[in-house]
Specification:
Blueprint lengths: L3 E4 L10 E5 L4 E10 L3 E7 L2 E6 L2 E4 L15 E3 L1 E6 L3 E7 L4 E4 L6 E14 L2 H7 L9 E3 H27 L10 H16 L4 E13 L1 H16 L1 H18 L4 H9 L40 E4 L3 E2 L2 E2 L1 H15 L4 E2 L5 H4 L1 H14 L2 E6 L2 H4 L2 H15 L8 E5 L16 E4 L3 H14 L16 E5 L2 E6 L4 E5 L2 H11 L17 H10 L20
Parallel strand pairs: 1-3, 14-17, 14-18, 18-19, 19-20
Antiparallel strand pairs: 2-8, 2-12, 3-6, 3-7, 4-5, 4-8, 9-11, 10-11, 11-13, 15-16, 21-22, 22-23
Length: 541
């Protein structure tokens, strides 16, 4: 082959966009001139390795580090020169060739999804790009963006699909409402895809998702499911049967089919005898074993409301099992406890919300169970604790009676910020929760005999490594001890406590023994501030 005296590349004759070009030939004379145009980089391969990378300019190919051709002295060498286009291509298209199936995270239907969008690439490491990709395609003299798009299509689509699924599942977003989340989903997918392209010396830029949409038939099923939740199952079924009657009447006029629909009872009046209401789970236990139970209270006569995510991907969550245990324990302690163990689909949105709202209005204590943050922030769990907090801010409920059970190993920061100020326990220390609930509800005259109240600054206790910590957050006082009582006593010694016997002593501090008596009488050995009705004044000694 004729030796090369000048090596350069002026672009394609047809003006098509290119990514990489391998200059013809593999034998070069030392001193050959290499011209690299603006917007290009050149890569010289000698002895099977990258010998040098050149930016725009003129260069002479020297003898250093090369292996001379046999029989020709040292005037020639074997090698290859590649020209790389530095300009980013921003109009590369991607899309799913065939629909892929997902379970709609909000409504639980299996739907077929199509997605498409754009992305761009930029060669950031020419040497790596040549050795990892161009060298692996020896038959290609000119690499186009279309070639790269085809080469990486499967990898790109695979990562985009998995990240769409992960994001929508974590956020519990339906495909009906995904359009408003496309920017954020694009950002998540872009970050994931970049790590897959970087080993080839390629940077992915401006990846965007323009459409994520179910097939028309699946979209219609989702729309009907949403309508069903919005109307409530009974109303929805009535309307659908009326639609069916209209179609039958307009069509064949099949009187037998119309009679079948009417006799099915689907359009029976709301109060028909065959209809049965489902009772929501509310405990009304017999407080004293062996004594006949009183007439059950209304379902809204609730003392403790347990908020938790019941199912995830059609499977019971760990929180559901925890909630059942908490329900059973607090019920055995004599409290009326509410937990919704039916799904939104079973009840319909309107009925579901009505039951939730009634129970929240009656509840004197809220327990939020969240082994994972996304469970606590799921749509209906968030609605429950957010509604309760609204009542607290309005002064209609006591904020001291909000408790959270969080995942073991997670600290307070794992909770939504609105819940971090309230007493929290790891799930493994649920026994502490029972004592705090008992203490709080006893203080406001719920379930148990009302205790005689002392007013203290707000106090919080939490188990730590090697013991307990008691904090008066308003006064920035914290003490630690081997036991809960030790920690509280140390905190008390740091604080000049003035206890007020409501209705008896006014502002006069009681004897020290009175404080000790109160602490000993309560199972948690702590006293929380309570806004309680005034108890009867103690009789004179």
């Amino acid at each position: 082959m004729e030796q090369q005296k000048l090596i350069k590349f002026d672009g394609t004759a047809d003006g098509n966009v290119w990514v990489a070009y391998k200059y013809p030939g593999d034998r070069y004379a030392y001193g050959t001139q290499l011209l690299v145009a603006p917007g290009q980089q050149a890569v010289l391969i000698k002895n099977g390795r990258v010998a040098a990378c050149y930016d725009a300019g003129a260069y002479l190919l020297e003898a250093e580090g090369s292996t001379p051709l046999q029989g020709e002295g040292s005037t020639h060498f074997y090698g290859a020169v590649y020209f790389i286009n530095k300009a980013a291509a921003l109009d590369m298209l991607w899309g799913t060739a065939t629909p892929f199936q997902f379970e709609d995270p909000k409504y639980g239907l299996i739907v077929s999804i199509r997605a498409h969008g754009k992305y761009g690439i930029r060669i950031t490491e020419p040497g790596l790009f040549v050795t990892e990709l161009v060298g692996a395609t020896p038959d290609q003299t000119l690499l186009s963006h279309q070639f790269l798009n085809s080469y990486f299509n499967s990898l790109l689509i695979s990562h985009i699909k998995s990240n769409i699924f992960d994001y929508m599942t974590r956020s519990c977003i339906s495909f009906l409402g995904v359009t408003s989340h496309l920017t954020e989903i694009s950002r998540v997918c872009s970050a994931a895809v970049k790590s897959e392209f970087s080993p080839y010396g390629i940077e992915v830029v401006n990846l965007s998702i323009e459409t994520i949409a179910p097939l028309p038939s699946d979209f219609e099923q989702l729309r009907r499911m949403k309508e069903k939740y919005a109307l409530g199952e009974k109303t929805y079924m009535k309307e659908r049967q009326l639609d069916l009657l209209d179609k039958l009447a307009e069509g064949s006029g099949d009187s037998a089919a119309i009679k079948t629909v009417l006799e099915s009872g689907w359009l029976a009046p709301e109060g028909a005898a065959e209809r049965k209401e489902t009772v929501t789970t509310v405990a009304h236990p017999t407080v004293n074993p062996g004594v006949a139970a009183t007439v059950p209270k209304k379902s809204t006569d609730v003392e403790v409301f347990i908020s938790f995510k019941n199912t995830y991907n059609d499977q019971p969550t760990p929180d559901a099992a925890i909630a059942a245990k908490v329900f059973e324990k607090l019920s055995s302690m004599g409290y009326n406890v509410f937990m919704m163990n039916e799904t939104l689909y079973q009840k319909g949105v309107s009925n579901y919300k009505k039951l939730i709202d009634e129970a929240l209005e009656e509840a004197s204590c809220l327990i939020v169970i969240g082994s994972r943050r996304e469970f606590v922030e799921s749509e209906w769990v968030r609605y429950e604790w957010d509604t309760y907090l609204t009542e607290v801010l309005a002064g209609r409920k006591a904020g001291d009676n909000i408790f959270t059970l969080r995942g073991d190993g997670a600290d307070i920061s794992a909770l939504p910020i609105s819940l971090r100020k309230y007493q929290s326990f790891p799930i493994s220390e649920v026994e502490q929760l029972y004592m705090w609930v008992s203490n709080a509800l006893s203080g406001i005259g719920v379930g148990k005999k009302q205790r005689q109240c002392l007013l203290y600054p707000a106090v919080f206790a939490e188990k730590e490594a090697g013991g307990y910590a008691v904090t008066f957050p308003d006064l920035e006082i914290k003490a630690e001890g081997a036991s809960l009582k030790d920690a509280f006593m140390k905190a008390k010694n740091l604080l000049e406590i003035y206890a007020v016997y409501l209705g008896k002593c006014g502002d006069t501090p009681p004897e020290a023994t009175a404080i000790e008596d109160v602490m000993t009488a309560h199972p948690t050995n702590t006293v929380m501030y309570v806004d309680a009705p005034l108890p009867e004044a103690p009789e004179e000694a």
